[in-house]
Structure formats: C-alpha cells, structure tokens
UniProtKB/TrEMBL annotation:
Annotated source species: Dasyornis broadbenti
Binding site for substrate: 19, 99
Identification of the protein by name: PHOP2 phosphatase
Cofactor field: Mg(2+)
UniProt keyword list: Hydrolase, Magnesium, Metal-binding
Highest classification ranks of the organism: Eukaryota, Metazoa, Chordata, Craniata, Vertebrata
NCBIfam families noted in UniProt: DKMTPPase-SF (TIGR01489), HAD-SF-IB (TIGR01488)
Residues annotated as binding Mg(2+): 8, 10, 179
GO molecular function, a single term: phosphatase activity
PANTHER family in alphabetical order: PHOSPHATASE, ORPHAN 1, 2, PYRIDOXAL PHOSPHATE PHOSPHATASE PHOSPHO2
Family: Belongs to the HAD-like hydrolase superfamily. PHOSPHO family.
Domain of life of the source: Eukaryota
Gene3D superfamilies, A to Z: HAD superfamily/HAD-like (3.40.50.1000)
Active site residues according to the UniProt entry: 8, 10
Length: 241
C-alpha cells in the first residue's frame, strides 16, 4: 500500500510566488515598467529569463539571490506536514511538479532541510552561467493546448506513473495538492479513487467548481484545504484505513 503525493510549489508549499519574490533583489525592489509589461500569456519562462538578465546586469549575485529566496515563508502548517511525510516515507512517495525552477526549489528545500522528503522534483532547469547570470529553460515540449508552453503537468504526472509501473510500483491513491490554473490539467487526469486538494480561494478551486457547475465535474474526489494541517489530517486518516 503506497500513496503518491504530488505537490505544486508556489502558493502551495511556500506561501508566495518564488519568481516574483526574487524581485526583492532588484534595485528598489522593483522592475522597470517596460520589463514588467513584456510578459506574454503562456510565456512566463521567457519573461523570467529577461528578469534574470536584468538582475545580472544590475550586479545581483548568486549569494544575494539565495539569501533572499530562503526568507520565503512556508504555507501555514506546511512545516508540520512535510515533517509528518518525512517520518512516513515508507507509505508515501512524494514529488513536486512546479513552474518555478530547479535553483529556487533546491535552495528553499535544502535551507529548511526538506529535500529528503521529495523523491523527485519536476521543474524548469536553471543554472548560473560562467558570467554569474541565472538562466532558465523550458522543462519540456508538449502538445497540450490548455497548458503554458514550457510545462504540462499532466504529461509529467503520466510519464512519472508509467516509469514507476515499469519499476513495478503502483499506487493505492494519488493525492494532488495545488492552487493554480495549471494544476487543473493534471487533476482532470486523476481517477475516481484519487483525490485533488485545491487550496481554498485560489484559481484551482474556482476552476474545479466551475466544471462541477457546467456538469462536467472532475472524476476524482475533491477536498479543499486552507492550512497544510488539513492535508496532514487527511493523510493520517488515509494511513489508518
């Protein structure tokens, strides 16, 4: 009996958006309006690439970025939840699927000593160039019309499950924990026995309830959370069963 926990990162594990938090490193903690207005829907990764160039041009170094990123608060109850999962790793496989990047997530998880809770992290690859600028790339290419150009979380989840099956690992239940619009695509992939846990008051919860109103509800069960303690409470019930 093994359960798969799938976490989004921004506004789920942490209580902020890691990509917008980095702007605290910019001169006067803001971006010039030309740069801010250069974002085009579906092309967030390219936009962040320009933000990182701006920071590099303004002499923002890796250690300053790291210091800033590790001050992001975790969502209420999340430290308890991740501690609980860490103690019960024989029952839970745990992955992150996020539109953030490898550098930010790695810094934040390691600073809080949570990197061992997660088996894999699927996010946009990032690295510092030899000139000290942070660079970011698309996670993969896909053909999903619903998702941003750089990442379809359903595709990531499906490929992970296929790979696990090849290793002889299948899951009693998948629990998907997220908040954003890009979490709807993987939630619609979940089966009747699985559970989606959208964060209360965020886009994912609103989109799931819109689907229910238009009589095309998601197949899986839905349990809304406002604190990660709600998630922990559910997982405790799950392992008692």
């Amino acid at each position: 009996m093994k359960f798969l926990l799938v976490f989004d990162f921004d506004h789920t594990i942490i209580d902020e958006n890691s990509d917008t938090w980095i702007v605290k490193c910019a001169p006067e903690s803001k971006l010039p309006s030309g740069l801010r207005n250069s974002y085009q829907p579906g092309h967030w990764t390219e936009y962040m690439g320009r933000v990182f160039v701006y920071l590099g041009d303004n002499g923002v170094k890796e250690d300053e970025m790291k210091r800033t990123m590790t001050t992001i608060p975790f969502t209420v109850g999340m430290i308890d939840l991740l501690g609980f999962i860490g103690k019960n790793k024989e029952l839970f496989d745990c992955i992150i699927v996020s539109d953030s990047n490898t550098v930010f997530i790695d810094w934040i998880l390691k600073a809080a000593d949570f990197h061992n809770v997660f088996d894999e992290v699927f996010t946009n690859p990032a690295a510092f160039s030899n000139t000290g600028y942070l660079t970011v790339q698309h996670f993969h290419a896909h053909h999903c019309a619903k998702c941003p150009k750089n990442l379809c979380k359903r595709k990531v989840l499906k490929e992970f499950l296929d790979k696990q099956l090849e290793r002889g690992v299948s899951y009693t239940q998948i629990v998907y924990i997220g908040d954003g619009g890009n979490d709807l695509c993987p939630v619609m992939f979940l089966k009747k026995n699985d559970i989606a846990m959208p964060r209360q008051g965020y886009t994912l919860e609103k989109k799931i309830s819109q689907l229910a109103q238009s009589l095309s509800p998601v197949q899986c069960s839905v349990l809304v959370w406002s604190s990660a303690i709600d998630i922990m409470y559910y997982l405790k019930l799950l392992i008692k069963e």
